Amino acid sequence: MPILTSTYQTQLLTYGLTLAIAALGFNLLLGYTGLLSFGHSAFLGAGAYAVAFMMRYLGVSSMELFLLGGIAFSAVIAALFGVVCVRHTRIFFAILTLALSQVLWTLAYKFFWITGGTDGIRVPFANVTLLGGLVSFPGADAFAGFVTSYYYYVLVVFAACALLMWVIVHSPFGKTLQAIRDNETRARFLGVRIWRYRWLAFLVSGIFTGLAGTLWVPLNGLVTPDVLYWPQSGKIVFFAVLGGFRNFFGPIIGAVTFNYLEVYAVALTEYWQLTLGVILIVLVTFLPAGIVGTTVRLAARLKRSRGASA
Amino acid sequence: MSLLRTEGLKKYFGETRAVDGVNFSVNEGEFLSLVGTNGAGKTSLVNLISAFLIPDSGRIFIGERDITYATVDERIRAGIARSFQLVNLFDDLSVLDNVALAIFARERKTKRIFTLAERDTEVTAEALDLLGQFNLDGKAQALAGGLAQGERKLLDVAVAYALRPKLLFLDEPTSGVSTRDKAQIMDTVSSVVRGGKITAVVIEHDMDVVFKYSDRVVVMHEGRFLADGPPDEIRRSREVATYLLGTDVST
Amino acid sequence: MEIVALQVLNSLFYAAVLFLIAAGLSLIFGVMGIVNMAHGSFYALGAYVTAWSVVAAAAAVPTPVLFLFLPLGAAVVALVGLVIEPTLIRPFYRRPEEYQLLVTFGLLLVLEDVIRAVWGGTPLTAGQLVDSLGLVRIGGLPYPVYNLLMIGVGAAAALGLWAFVYRTRFGVLLRATAQDRRMAAALGIDVGRIYILAFGLGCFMAGLGGAIVVPSQAAVLGMGVEVLVLAFVVVVIGGLGSLEGALVGALIVSALRTITIQFWEEIELAALYLIAAIVLLIRPTGLFGRKS
User: Fold this and answer.
1) A112 touching C, CB under 8 A?
2) Which of A53, A191, B84, B192 has the greatest number of C-beta atoms within 10 Å?
3) Is the confidence metric ipTM above 0.85 for this complex?
């Protein structure tokens, strides 16, 4: 694809893929476990800052190590936050996730001597190597090359994540999560320890979204506390609702669609957050199944009416 | 040694004595009906035994084991399972998945995260076989939420049955269904349960159903046992007739 | 020693603000069962409207009259709430919780940006109100009379709310609806009217919190979510749906906050949530929370 399109478009698509991974992680909780988190920016941030810290303080440059570090850091955050959040009703869960992510945000800008504060930490692509050091990008004109190579890298990781998530939601574990979503009482009466499974789902969800943050940052070149600020969580929620959260592919489509929508809409209006909010309200009121969900329903209805008239 | 035994079980809700000193014992292989008017304490008793409620006093035993304060999963492992009066199913999962899930839970396979559920041929086969026994195999791929009420009631029982319990509590398995469906449901439930040699306690309001299918009938009133015996004996009991049927048969 | 007294007073002042917000949130949740994710934004709206109107009217109106803009600001917010409840919230009562949370979250996104659109990024203050009341000496150290007055307002609000909920006829209706909506409807209570009034009252309180704080502290973008996060600690510790919980929680949170800001400012929010997490482990529904 990069052969046909410009560097900018490739970059945009790569961003879209990272957002799609974040959405996949988020939806394990919402679509499959029935838990709405308003704090997934915490994991984006954990994954992103892991890269920055490893690069600045440990001198690491291998993308593979960054991925491992990002996964580890988000796993720790998810494990801790999960213990606090999952034992409660869904409403308390939503409240606590928002709050805890904002705790991280305040820590990020207050401990500026570690995190670079509001200026953030730079993550130059020139310091990043792919495939265990085989591929690197020295030199002033390396950006285009980096974007192309990085696109393929992220594409592979995305495909792996999507496949993995597919298996997870269709596994006995995934079915158990859905059971907990559908009928907590009955699940408990099958001997399922509800909060343990919710915690595990939270952990997996956090890791996937953290991975997205890790992949995002070398492309962005910079990580600031903004990645932890609550509108980032809102965007992730929006992907899932836009695409349709009762569907595996919904959040992916939602993330990629949003990615392009944002670029072109931000050019049109200064009040992008307002627009988002209005669209969210409209979606929830009239199109709760999202793009993919509604399309699936329409297709089913078409099939039925065609079958009837045949 | 009875399968289940309660001693002096009590549960009060403020002034209301839901369960007022119940000594209940169930023997292996029995098909027992628990009857009484609304508020007699039947559901509270079942709730106490299945860990929905904690008793104020008294004890519950499975065999020799005291399960009075055991957790839900401990009781399930001890062999208790229940169905629900207001159907409790996983509406957005398929009929097959509903039953398969119970089997996965029983086999402790629910933490398997990197394998596809449908690939587990053992579980799938057992689930399909079970659905067949309950005459639901035709609907295996349908969503549980889309079934007719009678089928949902059967599925509710099937899911509890899939846990292969020693003791199965059925809370009004025929409530909310048409008369014709009632017979069908009870026929199915009764044949499956007896065929599997499972001990069953059924809460039931329909006395025809009770007399037709049970080995033993226990009548509850205001939290206590009023009568306990084989259907014929209960049917002939004047006390019970007056209480349950509202007719005065003393003349 | 005197400094401690001043800190205590500061803590009480902020507790008054937190109480108003948390009580509003709890009231709405207690009666209607929903958490308004935009509740903090109503607080922010109250702050901005009050500050703006005070500044706009300052030339024309004598300063004592400017104080009327505080309840006025709150009333404007309540009005917004009265419009929003039937249009945005009511359609979602019967729907799963996720949708209620999503729609109020959408409202949060909208309100935060509306505030930015109307008032821009520069902070707004209404400092003249604080100045006009002057200072009082507490153990030799100067302290704004305004803060003392607002502590009084907070206490009055707590008492007033308590009296309203527990001693008036409307309060009885409110509590009945909170306990059992269907029963209340069956008894002939107009549940819709109760809901809209409860929501309006909750928004009024949030707006009043903002109005009270803005003469002392500038209205800035992001204050809505910032206070929401603090209000959440209050209801987590105190229990959601409880007035006593909101009061006790506000006092505790404000005190903790004042203490941590003294000793290690950076971890203020983290410390608050650590304590909240501990409270949750012991009492999952908070100190005064009801078990659902």
Assistant:
1) no
2) B84
3) yes
